[in-house]
Amino acid sequence: MSRKKKEEKEVIIPEHQKAKTFQEFLRERFEDLFNVPKKEEKEVKGESEAELYENAKSLLEYKDEDIAVELSHVTKDYKKGRGIFDITFRVPKGKTFGYCGTNGAGKTTTLRTMMGFIKPDSGTVKVMGMDAWKDAEKIKPLVGYLPGEIAFPQLEHGSDFLKVQAEMIDLKDMSKAERIINMMQLDPTANLKRMSKGMKQKTAIVAAFMNSPEIIILDEPTTGLDPLMREAFVNLIKEEKARGATIIMSNHMFDELEETCDYVAFIKDGFIVDIVDMENIHARKFKEYTIRFETHADYQAFKPKSLKGVKILYDVGAKDTYVIQIPIESTDQLFEELSKHNVRSIKEVQYTLQEYFEENVIGGNK
Q1: Right CATH for 286-350 from 3.30.700.20, 3.30.70.920, 3.40.30.10, 3.40.50.360
Q2: pLDDT band for position 35 (50/70/90)?
Q3: Contact 188/166 with Cβ under 8 angstroms?
């Protein structure tokens, strides 16, 4: 009895579909059945160069010879949306540049390209005019570096580590190291393996600053430090700025960045989304005041809209309070008007870097 041979039909898979996972295949094949809408893919892009420097135009005024570090269209792609993409910014000599973003945004990868630890897929990183990857050995003596993850060598004490570091950079005078040790309240004789996170951080800070390098690159430098030591660190940064050091510092502490930096760049999902000149934060053309009146009648009698250029941010009638924004040139007019009413309190609301971030980066959907 003859058997009919089953007809074999060759299944040809198009090349563009071969790399799809089984889950992706099911999703596409049975999407209507399960009524699962396909997720809209939104391409994430950084700002154009003109947009990027909109709030930091002064950076474009520096000549090339006045630039300490410059990144131009730098990309390092780790796939699946991880890495840094088209990173472009410049840091003038003697300025402090803050780098702000959440964990995983790309801060450490960017700093490591500056140190020549990572070779970018594309773009260029220049440090004092030299290629950060090709000329890494020439650049390293010019740079003090504090990594985000500190791993000490097999040495017994903190002082042993500092001594080895000094020998590597041919540092003979340890007087600055001793001064920073005192400033940071560090016991360098402590056992390295038993050190707390804070003590390890202090030890690494001493190593990064002790030879007064031209450039200092710091990855989350105040991690593990208590508030008192954070304050000491901020004072150290100010000292280094005063002697003319160029400082690049990743940090998510807005107050520390605001107090020390000349410029701050915001990175999100591997893209630079904004750079701000801190002069624009500190020297705004208008002020904000919270004004509370003694009585509801005084509150009603005050007419803020009669003042030139005023903007009412909050009108809290239940508490007889206004929060207003007013041009600096109109403040005399404001106080003249307030003198006609019974005012319980008036407080100037200082504009902060965090507010800028919330308004322009988060609120602006950058």
Answers
A1: 3.30.70.920
A2: very low
A3: no
